[in-house]
């Protein structure tokens, strides 16, 4: 397995994994599968996203070159929040779970955040995603807030826990 910063050349594989994530874990992302799958230019949108200077998306690949996991480091742009960053869109494919991919992605993101002199890393996690919460806690993240009914899809609500890692 190896981790690398994704580029616009990875947009197709990135898009495929994002669609898988939206299908299998709709509660973990703001966009719905339906909002994304019908867009004709979604690969172009992902290419632009992968070029964004303050959003660094990392991918975990197996030895065959298959993209199995993703995670994004979003850096603060404004002066007063340049010491903080967010981790977004963490996802490991079902075929890659249990192999330490999420941990490796987080380690790489934390390392990169340190190189930017980031002092705080923030993320949100759906409160019933025990596997992700265990991983984040193991990596040193602490819960600092709970947002009830943070997400709604149809008649179902999900709470989100806000977590921070001081580095």
What does this structure look like?
This protein is α+β, with helices and mostly antiparallel strands. It has a single domain (2-166), classed as 3-Layer(aba) Sandwich (Aminopeptidase), CATH 3.40.630.30. The chain is built from five helices and seven strands. A seven-stranded mixed beta sheet has the order 1-2-3-4-5-7-6, with helices on both faces. The mean pLDDT is 94.
Features:
globular; Aminopeptidase; 7-stranded mixed β-sheet; Acyl_CoA_acyltransferase; 167 residues; 32% helix; Bact_Acetyltransf; 5 helices; 35% strand; GNAT_dom; single chain; alpha+beta
In brief, what are we looking at here?
The chain is α+β, with helices and mostly antiparallel strands. It has helices at 11-24, 33-37, 42-51, 101-115, 130-138; strands at residues 2-5, 55-61, 67-75, 84-92, 120-126, 142-153, 156-166.
